[in-house]
Amino acid sequence: MFTLIGFIIIYIVSLTIENMFFLHKENKLLNKYGDEEVVEKIIKGLVWQGQTEEQLIDSVGRPTFVVHDYNESSVNVIWRYEHSRPKTGRYRSWGVPSPNFDVFIDNGKVVSWEITNK
User: Fold this and answer.
1) DSSP 8-state class, residue 72
2) Which residues span the membrane (predicted)?
């Protein structure tokens, strides 16, 4: 009986701490950007046109690679996100693996993105 009560207390405390961290992150982003819509998109981990590089990092993290594609008239910047292959056996990942994707940036803002099968 006491162990069940102890587990319940630990569970409630862990949920409370998790909620506090979430609210802290949300408030920090709101102070940083001052726009609730932007903060909501960042918390959901979204990528959108017009998003700044800093917002992209806050939303999905730093890219695995940054590719500079030099053309005759301009430089295209591609942020490449590659996730490791799903593990098998004892140490496999239980969630759905995140897709690999490229984000195309022009003048510090997202112009497009695509999911890759690399």
Assistant:
1) S
2) 6-23
Q: Per-residue pLDDT tens for 28-72? A: 999 999 999 999 999 999 999 999 999 999 999 999 999 988 878
C-beta of residue 108 within 8 angstroms of C-beta of residue 53: yes
Contact by Cβ (8 Å): 31, 15: no
- Looking at residue 95, the DSSP 8-state letter turns out to be S
DSSP code of residue 52: B
Claim to verify: residue 35 and residue 54 sit in the same structural domain: no
3-state secondary structure of 90: helix
| Average pLDDT score over the chain | 83
Q: Which domain holds residue 34?
A: 1-44
Helix (H) or strand (E) holding 20: helix 2-33
Closest to 100 in 3D by CA, of 60, 55, 48, 53:
60
- Split at pLDDT 50, 70, 90, the class of 79 is very high
The number of folded domains in the chain is 2
Question: Shortest CA distance to 46 belongs to which of 55, 59, 32?
Answer: 59
